[in-house]
UniProtKB/TrEMBL annotation:
<dbReference type="InterPro" id="IPR036291">
    <property type="entry name" value="NAD(P)-bd_dom_sf"/>
</dbReference>
<dbReference type="GO" id="GO:0032787">
    <property type="term" value="P:monocarboxylic acid metabolic process"/>
</dbReference>
<dbReference type="InterPro" id="IPR050259">
    <property type="entry name" value="SDR"/>
</dbReference>
<comment type="similarity">
    <text>Belongs to the short-chain dehydrogenases/reductases (SDR) family.</text>
</comment>
<protein>
    <submittedName>
        <fullName>3-oxoacyl-[acyl-carrier-protein] reductase</fullName>
    </submittedName>
</protein>
<dbReference type="InterPro" id="IPR057326">
    <property type="entry name" value="KR_dom"/>
</dbReference>
<keyword id="KW-0560">Oxidoreductase</keyword>
<dbReference type="GO" id="GO:0016491">
    <property type="term" value="F:oxidoreductase activity"/>
</dbReference>
<dbReference type="InterPro" id="IPR002347">
    <property type="entry name" value="SDR_fam"/>
</dbReference>
<dbReference type="Pfam" id="PF13561">
    <property type="entry name" value="adh_short_C2"/>
</dbReference>
<dbReference type="InterPro" id="IPR020904">
    <property type="entry name" value="Sc_DH/Rdtase_CS"/>
</dbReference>
<feature type="domain" description="Ketoreductase">
    <location>
        <begin position="3"/>
        <end position="192"/>
    </location>
</feature>
Length: 234
């Protein structure tokens, strides 16, 4: 389709699968990384999404390379799990900074050019945990549910300019993030998923590509689960 796409955290995991899905359909795809470089066929920009100036520089580089960002995927994210009473305040604020404030930073940087073009797609990668809650993840769950309010507010602010803002809420996906969970916990999780397995990163990527594609032109402010049924009803 030849659009200019930017995926934060697109150097590995779900972000990489998303970047590849766009590249396969002919878009120009840039990914942020923090020093690892970009995988083959993708344009890499160094960027820590917790740094507003770094975000600005990354966008400028992307704009020079492939034109203004037409599709923004805010995917970069971290966990720093722990029970509330043992969680340090920095573990809360760092996770919110990387997962939620970063989404604000990239959306704010992308919006003016999308408004000028009177077109644009923003997709925010949240989590089923943002809707269900999760013991040991007050920081992560708060950041991920915050993305819903952020996206829905953007949908209202920017809808009149032809810009959509949607959220994808994956369940458990096979990536480094879930590989680090203890085996027993992994089996417990799978036991609660109606489809009885983790998602592949490609299954999440396909939904992100759909929301950014021509068939999703009338979808905005939606929270689309890709969770094997884990969060049904939320
Ligand atoms: P990974 O841990 O495999 O990858 C995380 C990505 O985010 C990496 O590219 C990482 O970059 C990047 N990143 C983290 N912090 C920053 C930062 N400060 N600045 C720039 N980039 C950063 O995670 P996943 O692929 O599993 O997760 C991707 C998204 O999907 C996250 O938002 C996560 O919360 C969400 N998600 C994941 C689920 C899962 O089961 N895996 C389930 C539901 C949601 P680097 O390589 O430099 O570290």
């Amino acid at each position: 389709m030849g659009r200019s796409v930017l995926v934060t955290g697109g150097n590995r995991g779900i972000g990489l699968a998303i970047a590849r899905a766009f590249a396969e359909q002919g878009d120009s795809v840039a990914v942020t990384h923090r020093g690892s470089g970009a995988p083959d066929g993708l344009f890499g920009v160094t960027c820590d999404v917790t740094d507003t100036e770094a975000v600005d520089r990354a966008f400028t580089e992307v704009e020079e390379h492939q034109g203004p960002v037409e599709v923004l995927v805010s995917n970069a994210g971290i966990t720093r799990d722990g029970l509330l009473m043992r969680m340090k305040e920095a573990d809360f604020t760092d996770v919110v900074d990387a997962n939620l404030t970063a989404a604000f930073r990239v959306a704010k940087r992308a919006a003016p050019k999308m408004v000028r073009a009177r077109a644009g797609r923003m997709v925010f990668v949240s989590s089923v945990v943002g809707l269900l809650g999760s013991a040991g993840q007050v920081n992560y769950a708060a950041s991920k549910s915050g993305l819903v309010g952020l996206a829905r507010s953007l949908a209202r602010e920017l809808g009149g300019r032809g810009i959509t803002a949607n959220v994808v809420a994956p369940g458990f996906v096979e990536t480094d993030m879930t590989a680090s969970l203890p085996e027993k916990r992994q089996q417990e999780i799978i036991g609660q998923v109606p489809l009885g397995r983790y998602a592949s990163a490609e299954e999440v990527a396909g939904v992100v590509a759909f929301l950014a594609g021509e068939h999703a032109g009338y979808i905005t402010g939606a929270v689309v689960p890709v969770d094997g049924g884990l969060g049904m009803g939320h």
